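forwarding from the other thread:

> can someone predict this with flavin mononucleotide?

sure thing
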Amino acid sequence: MKRIVIVVVTLLLSTAFMPVINVVNFPNSSNYAKKEESLQIYELPAPIKIDISLEEAIARRKSVREFTEEPVSEEELSTILWYAYGYINGKRPVHAIDKNAAQIYVLKEDGVYKYDALNHSLILYKTGDYRKKVAQYEAPIQLGLVWNKSKSSNEYYASAEIGQIGQNIYFVTNALNLGTVTTVGFTLSLIGLPSNEEPKIIMPLGHPKYPYNFTYKPMLLLSNLPCIQNSSMPLLTAIEERSETTTFGGEITKQQLSQILWAAYGFSYYIDHSLSEKNKIARHRVVPSAHAYYPLKIYAITEDGIYKYFAGLYRYYMWNLPVLHTVVKIRNGDFRKEIAEASSLPSIENAPLIIISVLSLRMTKGMIGLWDDFSSEEYRWMWYYEAGASAYNVLLESTAWNLSANIVLPTDIDTIRSLLRLNEEYIPLLIVPVGEKMH
Ligand SMILES: Cc1cc2nc3c(=O)[nH]c(=O)nc-3n(C[C@H](O)[C@H](O)[C@H](O)COP(=O)(O)O)c2cc1C
């Protein structure tokens, strides 16, 4: 009887899914579905091809917290999951900093599903509507991002990987004119997770109550870097063809430097007019940040010195101030070898550009009595999420500008601090070398 129900449900669902054209290397999961008859498996339809440039997608990234009741289609859900964490051309769309250690749960009205990336399907985990129980914001679908501790024991690196997945969810969701927001997801444990999984993030998916409404307004009054250009690379191609290497060479133009720093931590070239009372930020940044603290400092190390990137003015969002998008040289000389030796990949010494994200603990303390203090180790994973999101943007932007990159770990924190002239209030999080791929 159970088998008959499963077959009927599967048939009903498969006729409801309208496959779409323009699919790249999409797996056929039907064999798998036949083998695992005891599981309730729902194949996802082919993803939608979205035509938007990478920079446009980065510039449109924003958080949405209010949604209409209009459902998210299976094609839209399929596209978001595929580009978030599917197996594209045999590899994941994000960099496995440690090991691919994330799992996505999909919370729908009728139940909770596990995303099976290998077969691009949903496996029923639990029946029942858990969406309101776990989520901060009501939406037709909630995505739960969890850390699989059996794959990686390092919470920080797993969070940095989840930060990359979160970026793809933002980019693809926003490009589909849907909305999402990164929220802290401890409540996901209410669905009853396996003991090796720890909840991290919940991202709602839905149609924004206030439609997207941007105007192009790059504010470059105080900039010593060239204006951000849209590359000819579509978002989806950048995700599919993400270029990584361990052997670097070549040079970086000023335009490439500008694009990469912007992708790492800059502000959108758009002003957002679609603001509700709950969401007053008018110019968004390329990554989300818990409480909009934006506590990362971005350094650029080249052959001729160490530079600090300034994207805007402190607590810009309070007064809606203009962006700066500028670099200031803090040291003369070539320090790439020393940085490389203090990292997990010494061959990055030949990279023409090395980006380092550094956490300022002071910036995570909030305003005394007003905002939460997120400076303790308990919350450190949130800043790795943000650093992972920033590093991922650099991987994609490098790909779009015919460069290659990597995500490398700092192994000698004290040396890096001293090279960047920082005290113990600063913690180097991730290193991203960029350059031409050498063979
Ligand atoms: C790790 C992390 C946790 C967050 N948690 C929440 C949350 O619990 N609730 C919420 O409304 N927003 C949360 N945010 C979203 C930020 O508030 C948002 O990114 C920031 O206000 C900037 O707005 P924007 O993303 O629209 O540019 C979180 C962001 C990050 C990166």
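The pocket of flavin mononucleotide is lined by residues 62-63, 65, 136, 181-184, 281, 284-285, 288-292, 382, 385-386 (CB under 6 Å). thats all i got for now
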